[in-house]
Amino acid sequence: MGTFTNLNLTNTKNVWNNMESIPVQVWNPYLKKYIVCLEKIKKRATKLVHSLTKMSYEQRLEALGLYSLQQRSLRGDLFETYKILTGKQKN
Fold first, then answer.
1. What is the mean pLDDT of the chain?
2. pLDDT at 76
3. Distance between CA 70 and CA 86 in Å, rounded?
4. SS3 annotation, the chain
5. Which residues of the chain have pLDDT under 50?
6. For residue 59, what are the CA distances in angstroms to 38, 72, 74?
7. Are 32 and 17 in contact (CB under 8 A)?
């Protein structure tokens, strides 16, 4: 495997899209220590994109089209609520 120092914007989006398809137990942790750990990993990974190194974490997420774990959790809850209320929930 090569190093991650030469990541570009497209490759990073692909990596995160693939990683976010991992089961929800990993990306929606229950304990605060796991949330903090995953956010640190995500912050570090977004800094590896050379063109985004000078941006704040929030700006890097926006540039990559990503959400923080807290935002993803809320967004997922809203989607599930919508599906339940509209009868689109799969059994």
1. 76
2. 82
3. 24
4. CCCCCCECHHHHHHHHHHHCCCCHHHHCCCCHHHHHHHHHHHHHHHHCEHHHCCCCHHHHHHHHCCCCHHHHHHHHHHHHHHHHHCCCCCC
5. 1-3, 5, 25
6. 18, 16, 19
7. no
Contacts 24+ apart (CB under 8 A), 73-81: 73/28, 76/24, 76/28
CB-side neighbour CA atoms (13 Å) of 70: 4
Residue 69 is predicted with a pLDDT of 81
The pLDDT assigned to 56 comes to 92
Structure tokens at 19: 């990683």
